[in-house]
Design goal:
3% of the residues lie in helices and 30% in strands. The longest helix is centred in the C-terminal third of the chain and has 6 residues. The protein has 198 residues and is mainly β. It starts with 8 loop residues before the first strand and ends with a strand. The strands form 6 sheets. A 5-stranded antiparallel beta sheet has the order 12-11-14-15-16, with no helix packed on it. Strands 4-6-8 form a 3-stranded antiparallel beta sheet, with no helix packed on it. The chain folds into 3 domains: 34 residues, no CATH class; 59 residues, Complement Module, domain 1; 101 residues, Ribbon (Complement Module, domain 1). The protein contains 1 helix and 16 strands. One of its GO terms (molecular function) is heparin binding. This is Beta-2-glycoprotein 1. Binds to various kinds of negatively charged substances such as heparin, phospholipids, and dextran sulfate. May prevent activation of the intrinsic blood coagulation cascade by binding to phospholipids on the surface of damaged cells. Pfam families: Sushi, Sushi_2.
Length: 198
């Protein structure tokens, strides 16, 4: 004979039993005990859309939201399963990044724009930002792309922020406004794997 429990409960004891020659059972009969999930870990910069409990019944859903300026990275919903575990690990709430350039245009989402034209001069977690770098010997530029990861976005090593005077007096000479280098001209840059010819 095989034992199983209704949904939301688990077998405590053996799931199989055998009638012996002396007409007694080989094992004590099992019992069904309700299964619960323990509260999942808290999400920094996020919150749970559910009643806070010390344990959750099978089938219970927990929904997550992130605070302002943060992006949900992972499942928006997790469910308590019949084995007492959650359907997935809780998500992370990733911070937006300040664009670390002020006086040079950058490329975001395929569009060349000034950082101050972007809302709050910030990009969401996971967004790529392409910077313009000046060739050390030639009057041309090439590009290098960096990604925002949880509030951190660094400029590439080749990028130099234009001075206030360069920005105000010679805007047409800014690195983001000069002619693009020929594809082979960017090869001098040591980390060519993260650069593209503009």
């Amino acid at each position: 004979i095989r034992y199983s429990c209704l949904s939301g409960a688990g077998v405590v004891g053996t799931t199989e039993n055998f009638c012996q020659d002396d007409r007694s059972w080989q094992h004590p009969h099992p019992i069904c005990r309700k299964v619960f999930c323990q509260p999942p870990r808290e999400v920094e910069q996020g919150y749970v859309v559910a009643v806070q409990k010390t344990e959750y019944q099978v089938g219970f859903d927990i929904h997550y939201l992130c605070r302002k300026n943060h992006l949900l990275d992972g499942p928006q919903k997790i469910t308590c399963l019949s084995n007492g575990s959650w359907s997935a690990s809780p998500p992370h709430c990733r911070a937006r990044c300040v664009i670390p350039a002020e006086r040079s245009r950058v490329v975001i989402g395929g569009v060349k724009r000034w950082p101050f034209d972007v809302t709050d001069a910030m990009v969401p977690h996971g967004e790529n930002v392409t910077f313009y770098c000046k060739h050390p010997q030639k009057q041309c530029s090439f590009t290098a792309t960096q990604s925002c990861f949880d509030g951190k976005l660094r400029t590439p090593a080749c990028y130099l922020e234009p001075t206030w005077l360069q920005y105000k007096l010679f805007p047409h000479r800014l690195v983001s406004e000069i002619e693009a280098c020929d594809p082979g001209d960017a090869e001098w840059y040591p980390d060519s794997s993260s650069t593209d010819a503009a």
